[in-house]
Amino acid sequence: MRTTSTLPIWDHIASPKVQQPWLLILALLAFLFAQTEVCAQTDQVEKKSWISGLLNKRSSRVNYDTTYIARPYGQLTLKVRTNISGDGIHAKGRVDNYYTRANLETSKKITTSIAAIYKGIGVGMALNPAKIFGNYNDYELNLNLYNPSISFDASFHRSKSLSGTIKREEREIHVNKGDADMQVFNVTAYYTFNHRRFSFPAAFTQSYLQKKSAGSWLAGLAFQGGSLNTSKKAAETMPDLKIKAIHLGVGGGYAHNFVVHDKWLFHISILPTVVVLDNNSLTINGNKKSSQPIRLNLLLNEHFAMVYNFSPRYFASLTAVVNNSLFDDEMIIVNQNKWRVRVAFGLRL
User: Fold this and answer.
1) In this model, does residue 110 exceed pLDDT 50?
2) What is the pLDDT of residue 309?
3) Which of 4-8, 144-148, 218-222, 293-297 has the highest mean pLDDT?
4) CA–CA gap between residue 279 and residue 295 (Å, rounded)
5) CB within 8 A of 101, min separation 6: which ones?
6) pLDDT (tens digit, 9 = 90+) per residue, 32-75?
């Protein structure tokens, strides 16, 4: 009876019976590749485990009163949203013995977006049909962060779609799209004192649930800056107009969430800030007028929201964020208004 001995593959390749040295090299490379693959897979598993643990720790943290606030059903929230936003600038004053008033508005921006929020961390993608077809050439960026205690709203808008009227005494000039360029930046940061019972995220991101009505006082800081200039492509009848506005405000306000029949949530808040830094100017055909020293002027940040929960999994929301200014100056008044409205439908998994 003949017996056959089986050598390990490594011993077999290394034996003198094997005359081809390239087999030994091939086996060595395969061994090293296998070890590298195992290490890479181990590192990926460890990274995923670390990230998952960090998100679990963040989402399971309870730093609120559970009688008033709760986490919603599921860990993943999917939303379909439609956004509408616009901007306007209004200025008036007496320059070169002429009383001048300008009222200009940008084109409305309409986008459709989808968003996914996993354990409080979200990503989204927006689509602007008008921009795709070349009917919208402005650039606009909106950032909103709503945390239990500290939140902020920020926006930047560069527009060439301004249109409206400029009136000098009895003469009225129509401003068409492309006649003027505008850049505007707004940012408002605010602290929620009663964040254990009142939730901004419940109204604006739906990452929390407001179980009972509650309100909170707010402390905030606001900045608003912008400029408007007559473009080089403007008609000859268009005056050489330059408007500059820089405002910094500090103040406080109040916010309230109203819960109705456990399904409806209504939010309203207002944050007025008193301007402590003011640098406004209006220049027409080279003649410049600047604002007087600081008076009692205000920057306003307002929020409105309505949320309806069809069930623990399905909900719909309507939200609005508005930034505007109220100024009273004998020499020159510059007001800027920025607003955004969002309609959303969401699913929790």
Assistant:
1) yes
2) 94
3) 218-222
4) 12
5) 91, 92, 166, 167
6) 566 555 555 555 555 556 555 655 665 567 789 999 999 888 88
- Highest mean pLDDT: which range of 17-31, 193-207, 222-236: 193-207
The C-alpha atoms of residue 299 and residue 297 are separated, in whole angstroms, by: 7
Residue 184 CB-half CA count within 13 A: 30
Within its chain, how far is the Cα of 66 from the centroid?
A: 28
* Torsion angles phi and psi, residue 55, rounded to 5: -65, -40
Reading the block at residue 244, the tokens are 């500059």
The phi and psi torsions of 244 (rounded to 5 degrees) equal -130, 140
- pTM > 0.70: yes
101 DSSP β-pair partners:
92, 167
**Which residue(s) pair with 273 in the sheet?**
251, 299
Helix/strand/coil for 333: strand
| Cβ atoms < 10 Å from Cβ of 50 | 10
**Which amino acid makes up residue 193?**
F
Measure the CA–CA gap between 95 and 166, rounded to whole angstroms: 13
Buried b (16+ CB within 10 A) or exposed e, 309-341: beeeeebebebbbbbbbebebeebbbbbbbbbb
Q: What is the DSSP letter of 292?
A: P
Q: What is the largest CA-CA distance in the chain?
A: 122
Query: Tokens 């623990």 — which residue?
Result: 312
- pLDDT, tens digit (0-9, with 9 covering 90-100), for 73-87: 888 889 999 999 988
